[in-house]
Amino acid sequence: MNNIKFVGLHAHSGVGSPFDGFGYPQDHMDFCFDNGGQALALTDHGNMNGFAYQILHAKKMKKQGKDFKPIFGVEAYFIPCVDQWRKEYEEHKADKKKAKALSQDQSGVNVEEEGATKAKGRSINRSRHLVLIAMNQTGLNNIFKLVSESYSEKYFYRKPRMDYQLLSKYSDGVIAMSACLGGVMLGVTGRILRMVKRRFLTACERRPVLWLVFLVIVGMASFSGMLYLSNMLSISLSLK
User: Fold this and answer.
1) pTM given for the model
2) DSSP secondary structure of 167-223
């Protein structure tokens, strides 16, 4: 396994992602190096709290003669346009029923809140994941700026968020990736699969025998199928 060159570009630590990460960044770095790795990214949810740990431990490893490269990044929360979101938000507040639901949703702030990105939910609360890593010093400086502004009054709603406009403003030296099942790509393929599922259910109503087929594949369609379509979409886009 040590002869296979692999670099993990999406990882969470207990420092910046306490609900779905574990260990300190230096633990990740040591484990990676001990298993033949030469570099590793840290992409905690909406913050770079592990950055200092990466820097300090990288210096320690260098003194020990260990050639290891920490990669700096973040897993951001993405929405297409904060101005459009703000318009929808004001419309929700004007509707008494929707305003009550908003009030209930604002009972607390959970930076991770995986369910809101990977499952169905109110569009006003929904965001997608987007992994950003620094290509160089310019990219690192820009990620710092992106994270800082994502916590500003304009962008923050239950979690720090970024939109196309903000990403365009600080894009130099930054590499963006599709993240996980809560990522931007899966938002597209998920809509496609849900449309197929609705049409198949309509067919099942006319042909009861199809129910058995549906029950067998529904689990695959909701996870494996979504992941497969997302990967195919990502590969096709990369070849253009």
Assistant:
1) 0.77
2) HHHT-TTEEEE--STTBHHHHHHHHHHHHHHHHHHHHHHH-TTHHHHHHHHHHHHHT
**One domain for residues 107 and 147:** yes
Q: What is the DSSP string of 125-171?
A: T--EEEEEEESSHHHHHHHHHHHHHHTSTTT-SSS-EE-HHHHHHT-
Residue with tokens 């899966």: 186
Query: What pLDDT shows up at residue 110?
Result: 44
> Are 208 and 155 members of one domain?
no
Look at residue 205 in the predicted model and tell me its pLDDT.
56
Which pLDDT does position 92 carry in this prediction? 80
Q: How far apart are CA 159 and CA 72, in angstroms?
A: 20
* CA–CA separation, 180 and 164 (whole Å): 19
178 with 189, same domain?
A: no
Q: Are residues 164 and 221 in the same domain?
A: no
Count the domains in the chain. 2
Give the range of the structural domain holding residue 17, as residue numbers without chain letter.
Answer: 1-182
Q: Residues in the chain with pLDDT < 50?
A: 107-110, 115, 118-121, 210-216
Residues 6+ apart with CB under 8 A from 214: 200, 201, 204
Where do we find the tokens 């689990």? 219
Residues 3 and 102 in one domain: yes
Structure confidence at residue 124 (pLDDT): 79
41: β partners: 71
